[in-house]
Amino acid sequence: MAALLAIHTIAFAYLVSVASSAVAPGPVTYIFGDSMADVGNNNFFPQSLAKANYPWYGIDYSTKQPTGRFTNGRTIGDVMSAKFGVPPPPAYLSLSMNDDAILKGINFASGGAGILNETGSYFVQYLSFDAQISYFEKTKEVIKLRIGEAEAEKLCNDALYLIGLGSNDYINNFLQPFMADGQAYTHDEFIVLLNSTLNSQLMRLYGLGARKVVFNGIGPLGCIPSQRVKSGNGQCLHRVNQYVKEFNAQVTKLLMALNAALPGAQMILADSYPVVMELIDHPEKYGFKISTTSCCNVDSTVGGMCLPNSQLCANRRDYVFWDAYHTSDAANEIIANKMFADLSALTSGSAAPAPAPGPTSF
Ligand SMILES: *[C@@H]1O[C@H](CO)[C@@H](O)[C@H](O)[C@H]1NC(C)=O
Ligand SMILES: *[C@@H]1O[C@H](CO)[C@@H](O)[C@H](O)[C@H]1NC(C)=O
Predict the structure, then answer these.
(1) Could you report the per-residue pLDDT of 154-170, keeping only the tens digit for each?
(2) Which N-terminal residues, if any, form the signal peptide (predicted)?
């Protein structure tokens, strides 16, 4: 119960700062993740097989150009940044360490990445979560040189860390018959491995100054088009959805344990599962027509990306899914808005919210 209260308090402090972001500049944000959050890091890898820098990606982005985002327009993170009143943080590999951008927020996310190093290894070039944290570590050294040790520590303590990883540990690892982990582990064992690896990674980030962490839980992977085709009749894979629900539950416990053990840690789970499931179950309520197949019509167990020779759907706004893995711009907007509103709802029930934990809020 105490842990639950702590989570409410954090969410409250978070909203207070968001509400005031119209006047204050938005938070410095460091983003870690996979293809859901990548804004162009993989474009810098000539050999990477996890890229989205070609048409039709970006067709509904403001520039109408492919950017490396794995969707037709904005990512969930893009919509969230707009709510914070800041531009989306740039891709780490697009920056020079002399850029002032490194003091304002960076996106380290890389398509194909997972919590485990071996996840996504067949994409050849990408940044695993460990590699993303190592780049953040390098960045912090540069920040120290730029603004001094004490200021750098404060900047890192006050920054917001948005992390979205885990989907590829299932889709591009555990559920792939040709990857070793699916053979070596039962799901119970695999989740212990994910949990303990994530524990070390979050401790490492904490050691580098991260305090305010939002971990995005995994969505209903069993219902994405690339998984539905495996059912033979287009149904969601119930077993896969059970796996990711279990993962989200264990990560919630992990974050609570870290908050209890590490002074100043404020780590919360943003549970996208019910939000995405709602769109899939009731597409028409949100202006969609189809939530079971992708606009690019590339639903298969191999490939699944929207290649230049794909035949797009007539109306992209009708589809929850853009390609066989990734949600559309229209879906991302609704998911981001709903996750934001859910954070508010979480706090509205408490009659007398506790004061924000510490002088800075998140
Ligand atoms: C994962 O790779 C990193 C290097 O990127 C290495 O430091 C780390 O020890 C590896 N972790 C495991 C569990 O093998
Ligand atoms: C995950 O870690 C948390 C915190 O240490 C622990 O409470 C939970 O039991 C762990 N879950 C698994 C499946 O290892």
Answers:
(1) 999 999 999 999 999 99
(2) 1-21
